[in-house]
Amino acid sequence: MTLDEVARITGRFPHYLKMDIDGGEIPAVNGMNAILEAGTLRSALVEMNFAEASLLITEKFKQYGLDLVQKVHLLPSGCWNYIYKRDG
């Protein structure tokens, strides 16, 4: 089930999102187009291990007005927390 499907079933679109999926971030973000288009999402924290995923997700979020505001390296796991925020 995608995040868009959850939003459609519940009728609720998130304002905040925390994502820690261990490699499934790209499919998850690809399944939330309606949420991104709705403009309700104010901020997101996405834990990622792979540079390619971070580039793709950062670009997609930027298209919908969510800018990367902070990147935090988590030791000793080697993961990174990417924090995105919508201005306004």
What does this structure look like?
There is one protein chain. The chain is of the alpha+beta class and 88 residues long. The protein has a single domain (15-86), classed as Translation Initiation Factor IF3. The protein has four helices and four strands, in the order αβααβαββ. A four-stranded mixed β-sheet has the order 1-2-4-3, covered by helices on one side. The mean pLDDT is 94.
CATH topology: the name is: Translation Initiation Factor IF3
Number of helices: 4
CATH level-two architecture: 2-Layer Sandwich
Write the element-wise H/E pattern from the N-terminal end onward. HEHHEHEE
CATH class: Alpha Beta
Class computed from helices, strands and strand pairing: alpha+beta
What Rg is obtained from the alpha carbons, in whole angstroms?
Answer: 13 Å
Number of strands: 4
| Neighbour order of strands in the largest sheet | 1-2-4-3
First-to-last CA distance: 30 Å
Global geometry: globular
Q: Characterize the largest beta sheet: strand count, sense, and whether it forms a barrel.
A: 4 strands, mixed
Task: Please indicate the count of domains.
Answer: 1
Q: How are the SSEs placed, and which strands pair?
A:
Layout: H1 3-10, E1 16-19, H2 25-30, H3 33-38, E2 43-48, H4 51-63, E3 66-74, E4 79-86
